[in-house]
Amino acid sequence: MDKLLSTIQSPADLKGLSHQQLVQLAGEMREALCRLASTRTAHFASNLGVVELTLALHTTFDFARDRLIWDTGHQVYAHKMVTGRYDEFQTMRAKGGLMGYPNPTESDFDLFMTGHAGCSVGTALGMKCGDDLLQPKDGRHVVAVVGDGAFTCGMIFEAMNHAGGLKKNLIVVLNDNKMSICPRVGGMAKSLDRLRMAQFYTGLKTEVQKLLNRVPVIGDPVERFLTQMKDAVKAGLLGGMLFEDLGFRYIGPVDGHNIRQMQKYLGMVRDFQGPVLLHVVTEKGHGFPPAAEDPRTFHAPAPFQRENGSVVPLKKTASRPSYTRLVRDAVLERMRTDRRVAAITAAMCQGNMLEPLRDEFPERFFDVGICESHAVALAAGMAKAGMRPIVDIYSTFLQRSYDQIFQELALQNLPVLLLLDRAGLVGADGPTHHGVFDLTYLRPMPNVTVMAPGDARDVAPMIEWALQHDGPVAIRYPKAPAEIIDRPAKPVKFGKSEVLRRGNDGTFIACGAPLGACVEAAARLADEDLDFGVINARFVKPLDASAILHAVRESPLVVTVEEGALTGGFGGAVLEAAADAGLNTAHVRRLGVPDRFIEHAGRNELLADLGLDADGMVRACRNWIGQPCETASGSRVSA
């Protein structure tokens, strides 16, 4: 098992391998990927598709010296195997193990920790500019590998436009597998499909380029003729070439699973002067038929076993429905009853479980690709026209549309509903994906209402209320099963919390999903004769000053709990309200995510590490009980 792969300690070990050995190595790398996917959820199909590309890159360049940046870094598993991390590979995405994205703390071969799309060309161009300024004679090559799904990002074209103007020696490898997580969308997808079919153009353009490289830049008739011939080929076969109009030489399409051909073309573009784009065609899931046939399901599949060539999912115990599913079902019901409601997502149809919306209401479902800023601007325009649009995007990705939330939503006070999936700790995806900053960036926005469901029963009523509210609303919820807290139903009212019970010894104020843990902690403290109340905040902005400030005035200990950054978060909002009311806050404590990036691990493991589970809350309250503090009236008591 892994006879060759186990001997690769660095890319230097690849240099002496024959072509046949490289083919064998590719097979062993795919087998290692299959073993990993059988133990835990991991990015699978995308990594199966870049094995040969990875080997060709590392055998053509010397990335101990040259520069390599991976866009949307979930495609780096093969890269990690050949850069000294094979022995740790089966720890991928496990607590204390390798990260599922590039990580400079793991290896010098990882230059940026990249978990979002679209930044590779800009950072690669920046490195090239820096190298040329600091070491102009060093001649380092700089390569950015970008998936076709990421090519919808506006930042890609901003960087390419700049690179074309600077005429720096920059290599962009477009890894075209016809997929993002779901099938790619939009005009760029159609353009790439046309390029895939233009095999004749590849060979002809190569010959034209060779001729052009030999012609001196003197503006003579031969040069003009060759240039016009190239442009004519371009226009006649492809209807114009955007990449070349931006100043890039376009080479391709090239078979991304043919190592020899990849080495040939990478060697060619390595010697070009100026920016060049190499179009590489790969198959997502290549080499593992179930993944190749269904790359969407096998993007990050649940653990599975292989039996007689087929895939058998590992048995899972029944669990509660996730917040994502409950939100999806509530939105679908609203779309059925109100033709003004439309759904917008940014290449996350599958992740947000929106396929039923897309299938039932295709005319009111919009997948904009990896273009979060555009998604919010699109929603603003739809709202201005009288619609009630919903933007369903992961919390960490919505950060990319901060200015549009400010300018197009809040400033115009338009009725757009932002659904922030994966708010809080997402688990194995780690610091690039933890959605812990949304409260901090949303709370300062005038006109924006911010909500968080405490359990499953809050979800549908909150969405129904939000779609009737005349202004922007954001609802955040985690990637987690949704609990059901047993209590009488209480309607959602603007800026009103839900007091589950009052306590004489303290009060938990829960922001969203930690409500269940707060209820459990209060019950366990009751076994120790400590009477704690619980408030389900429901609204982060506006805060329910009446109920929450009553708790601050009357409770010996107040504990705010949030699955988000403490800096600028919910607990801070409570302290601000108390300070504005002139209340003493010495007895107010905050539980949440501290001011540091949180590493990858299982979500429950992270909650326990941060003291955000019931055990942590009970421990914290035991420590705080008995500490002398002052009540609002100024008298000294034991908290």
General description of the model:
- This protein has three domains: 5-179 and 246-290, 3-Layer(aba) Sandwich (Rossmann fold); 325-476, Thiamin diphosphate (ThDP)-binding fold, Pyr/PP domains (Rossmann fold); 499-638, Rossmann fold, CATH 3.40.50.
- The chain is built from 24 helices and 21 strands.
- The strands form five sheets. It has a seven-stranded mixed sheet, sandwiched between helices. A five-stranded parallel sheet has the order 1-2-3-5-4, with helices on both faces.
- The longest helix is centred in the N-terminal third of the chain and has 19 residues, at 19-37.
- The chain is globular, with a radius of gyration of 27 Å.
- The protein starts with 18 loop residues before the first helix and ends with a strand.
Short structural description:
The chain has 639 residues and is an alpha/beta fold. The protein is built from 24 helices and 21 strands.
Query: CATH architecture of the largest domain, please?
Result: 3-Layer(aba) Sandwich
Q: Which strand order do you get reading across the main beta sheet?
A: 9-8-10-11-13-12-17
CATH class of the largest domain: Alpha Beta
Mean pLDDT: 89
How many discrete domains?
Answer: 3
Strand content: 15-25%
CATH topology of the largest domain: Rossmann fold
User: Tally of extended strands?
Assistant: 21
